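Q: Predict the assembly, please.
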Amino acid sequence: MRHIISLLMENEAGALSRVAGLFSARGYNIESLVVAPTEDPTLSRMTIVTSGSDAVIEQINKQLNKLIDVAAVMDLNEGEHLERELMLVKVRAEGVARDELKHIADTFQGRIIDVSDRTLTIELTDTCARLDGFLQAIGRDLILETVRSGASGIGRGERILKL
Amino acid sequence: MELTGAEIAIRCLQEEGVEYIFGYPGGAVLHIYDALFQQDRVKHILVRHEQAAVHAADGYARSSEKVGVALVTSGPGITNAVTGIATAYMDSIPLVIISGQVPSYAIGEDAFQEVDAVGITRPCVKHNFLIKHVKDIGPTIKKAFYLAKSGRPGPVLVDIPKDISNQKTEFVYPDSVSIRSYNPVGKGDIEQIRRAAQLLLEAKRPMIYSGGGVVLSGASAQLTELVRLLGFPCTNTLMGLGGYPATDKQFLGMPGMHGTYEACMAMQYCDVLIAIGARFDDRVVGNVEHFAQVPRKIIHLDIDPSSIAKRVKVDVPVVGELKPVLEQLLGELRNSNKKPDPATLAAWWKQVNEWRVKGGGLRYKNSTEIIKPQFVIEKLYEITGGDAFVTSDVGQHQMWAAQYYKFNKPRRWINSGGLGTMGFGLPAAMGVQLINPGATVACVTGEGSIQMNIQELSTCKQFHLPIKVLSLNNRYLGMVRQWQEFFHGNRYSESYMDALPDFVKLAEAYGHIGVRIDKPSDVEPALKEAFARKNDLVFMDFQTDPTENVFPMVPGGKGLSEVILSEDL
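A: Predicted assembly structure:
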């Protein structure tokens, strides 16, 4: 099953490679991994999207907790949570297709952030599944470039990951 | 007063009460070696290969309750040390490894003897550090010692660039250390411990299975009390030998691939299994699906949550330091008005004793013609009164030593259980001998393993380490040969050791005493004579039966109850 795991870790050189190394060394999947500093510059927040059996997910959580630089781990799937991913898509937009693409972008609440004679660049922020839906709606033939940030996640309401 | 980074590093070791360190100098650690030269509190043991430095520090730590320290240079110094570090990591041994690094301004430029030490050791250390500023050396070494010995112990590397070891700063060694992202658990959750006590008291076929964690956490006394209080059978894993006295009647021997029949069967058919500082290793429970076919409740006490429910499902997990957790459990059991039902327990013991008879004990067919390796270990046990420190290398001799030397005390059996590192035994014995001066130290090895670190005979000479080396020389990589005999149609691919050196001459060349023993009748006199030489290293080259196999055996991928007993008895 797909899980989103959030963690807080010391903002130190090498911390990212400890997490990435753990996943490769133990053969766990990484679908995406996002990391950036938080409001506290000594801490980074990482969101990992992974998949595996319940036993594997339990081990991933425990192994992450065991890393010395990791201060807190939360498996967002254990409660209600939100996830968002940013995507930039450059599409071939000529003739009739141009209006059609603008229409699809509107439907998915995408913003057109760059325009040229023959291309459009669309920005979307949504769940990973909705972004997949958008790409499908456009079709691979017209897509020139796709840039996805990987998912970021946060618990709902009072579900807070903080030190 | 301002000190250089190198002086600070050595002062830190003094502050930690380090008596011996093991190392090998080189360009990037010259400042540190210079600082070492100008003091006499920390004594340096010059090994002949960096792998041996780490194994020696490891043996030092395993046979005491101290943190072992190794000092190596950059590049090949640290890459040579990696096998030692991984060995310690797999067996959770507290070590601090200080490595030199090329000057900080040269890092990343493929400088001479540069290697990414932090990167190359990352998967086999508990944690590691690259020093960026001279003021960080003191606090980082403090953290390194704290991390190495607290929680689940392990090796910690501190990599110090050469220029930083020569910069100056004020030296203040921190009194305490706290790491906000690292908070090892002490006591266990009392509700879970109550549930554990309840399960134990209601068990019909209980079994106590303890591992290296008991030895490392110094909880042998608590384990022993628990076993005696409950009256249950007990097994110790390869890493846990000595945790419970092996000559006690409640002890069933070692479980697993080369464990006793009764320990394997009791593990398989118990209805409540309490695992204490053990991790259900593949060499212990064999095929986990097969193991799971028999319903049983499992209680697991361990300092490391990731060891719990990793390979088997656990009903009552208890995370914590074993000593306080076992005290808590003992308290609950003593306060309970329930006791294990004597009749039920007697029926279980009857079954266990039937397995003991069926298994026939550890046995081999002795010979007057050819030396049986098991016979050598039996005699070693007798002659040393069961009280020696025994290190081993890896292979058949390791299993025979584990089976036939009955360890009654913890920290006496020193072997590479997790990583299975050939070449571990002799350097580990050096560390053991240094921290236990005057003690009897035996290194049980084979002609294959000993050649992986034989250069350390030179270190033993320089530092007067009177280790007794028992090489069970069967002219084969015995365990490889055994698997080839059983599973590869007797095709002994590359397992024959041809062109062996004359080990007697070799020992003599290093300035030691070498003895070759060919006949069974010479085994005992040779051992007696060797152990009588309190101040000499004696290398005993026992010419043993090349066809001997280790039994019992649970073949790889098989279940515990599929154990094969000796075929020729």
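Chain B is about 40% helix and 15% strand. Chain B touches chain A through 17 residues (CB under 8 Å).
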